[in-house]
Design goal:
binds flavin-adenine dinucleotide, D-Amino Acid Oxidase, Chain A, domain 2, 36% helix, disordered N terminus, 2 domains, seven-stranded mixed beta sheet, alpha/beta, 15 helices, single chain, 395 residues, disordered C terminus, FAD/NAD(P)-binding domain
Length: 395
């Protein structure tokens, strides 16, 4: 619960009664979790988000392992559970279908989950739960982003794209795999981000789509994966395709749609043409390289990175959101334990979180290879490995 200690603030400001200020860059899983945790320990937090509003698009994500304990301590575990999307009885994570929609194989749920306690929740619901948890003490600025950061002895001077200037005692980069704070403080993205050879996209589907599948169906063509996930009240189209790193403006939705449509242009199987139409019609889609971020350090002076900005494990790990929530909690704990001295706190944070990150980053190529096989022979082998046990429908 929120508290503040004058000596904590004196450490940074030399002035009792003035709160320790933090700028959190990015308002997604890592940024919202960090804003909640830092506000709880008495920081005056400003969150700046480049998008004009919270970005809610995306497929359901998993809250698992230690993140469940974090959610419990934050007092949001029950609310998260209430938003659970998949039924506990669901034995199958996804059913693989062929060109005509005939079920041919199925991925058992235990291949995708760590334990029965894992919670699959829509991205939108978790963003809203975290945002509501933060309360009114935190300032949110949308449609703006830092363009320069200058650290001096007492803090960091930040200039924003809007022309606004401000100062903070610490700056937290929670701005995802293309982090601008990482670029400004640590160096170009190309040093740290490793493309895993796959692009991934999500599109919201129109109401009524849920009638064409039951929960999750996945179709593969060589080097490509297309799926529909139906969670009752919402349905999503999911795409992945193998491709080397492409040069495009990753913030340009039209460019993203162009790459996606080009990748599946000649594919007529299953519901692919219908899903490509949904992509063309959508206002917003999520599209990005499936990447990992590897950095020797996640902090420098008064700057620290959390979530994908520091250590993206990729969607094939299924742990990005949980790591972001854990990282935010560990960061707040480390700040408290280190008397709010940034460099000591950031070192503790890194030491504690690294083992979980390493574990999450290992082994993702296996998941990539069975979800997006490169060849027809690869698809056939995968189907033999995960034979149909419970499902057998034409969809
Ligand atoms: C819209 C969206 C949809 C997603 N959908 C999926 C999905 O379907 N499946 C999946 O596995 N993962 C998805 N992800 C990624 C997933 O959220 C993360 O891997 C994980 O939750 C870790 O979150 P994060 O907060 O570290 O990074 P992210 O979730 O990527 O959040 C980064 C945030 O920072 C903001 N931002 C970026 N640059 C700046 C800047 N310069 N200044 C201020 N703000 C900035 C972004 O708009 C975003 O809100 C999605 C991410 C986003 C942003």
């Amino acid at each position: 619960m929120p508290h503040s200690t004058p000596s904590v603030h004196d450490l940074h400001t030399g002035a009792a009664n003035s709160p320790t200020t933090a700028l959190v860059v990015g308002a997604s899983m890592a940024g919202l979790s960090t804003a909640a945790q830092l506000t709880d320990i008495g920081y005056k937090v400003t969150v700046v988000e480049r998008a004009p509003h919270l970005r809610l698009v995306g497929s359901p994500i998993d809250v698992r392992g230690e993140a469940l304990t974090v959610a419990d301590k934050m007092g949001i575990l029950d609310t998260i559970r209430q938003h659970k999307v998949a039924s506990d009885e669901r034995p199958v994570f996804t059913t693989f279908v062929d060109f005509k929609g005939q079920a041919v194989a199925e991925l058992p749920v235990e291949m995708a989950n760590d334990s029965v306690d894992d919670i699959e929740i829509s991205r939108e619901a978790l963003i809203n739960v975290l945002h509501s948890r933060i309360g009114t003490a935190t300032d949110f600025v949308y449609g703006d982003w830092p363009v320069s950061v200058t650290e001096d002895g007492a803090g960091v001077a930040v200039a924003f794209a809007s022309g606004r200037n401000d100062r903070y005692q610490i700056v937290v980069g929670a701005d995802g795999i293309h982090s601008s704070i990482r670029k400004l403080v640590f160096g170009p993205e190309s040093i740290f981000r490793k493309h895993l050879g796959v692009y991934y996209a999500i599109v919201d589907l129109p109401t009524g789509t849920k009638n064409i599948v039951n929960e999750s169906r996945t179709y593969n063509c060589p080097g490509g994966m297309v799926g529909i996930n139906d969670y009752g009240d919402r349905a999503f189209g999911v795409f992945a395709f193998r491709a080397p790193e492409r040069d495009y403006d990753y913030r340009n939705t039209a460019a993203q749609k162009g790459l996606l449509i080009e990748a599946f242009d000649n594919e007529q199987g299953w519901h692919v043409p219908f899903l490509l139409d949904a992509v063309s019609d959508a206002e917003d889609i999520y599209f990005d390289s499936v990447s990992q971020v590897h950095m020797p350090r996640w902090s420098h002076g008064r700057f620290v990175l959390v979530g994908d900005a520091a250590h993206a494990a990729s969607l094939f790990s299924g742990r990005g959101t949980s790591l972001a929530m854990m990282g935010a909690a560990i960061l707040a704990e480390a700040l408290t334990e280190s008397g709010h001295e940034p460099s000591a706190a950031f070192e503790r944070y890194e030491t504690r979180l690294r083992p979980a990150v390493q574990k999450a980053q290992e082994g993702v190529s296996e998941a990539r290879d069975f979800m997006v096989p490169e060849t027809q022979a690869g698809i056939d082998q995968r189907n033999l490995r995960f034979p149909l046990k419970s499902a057998s429908h034409l969809v």
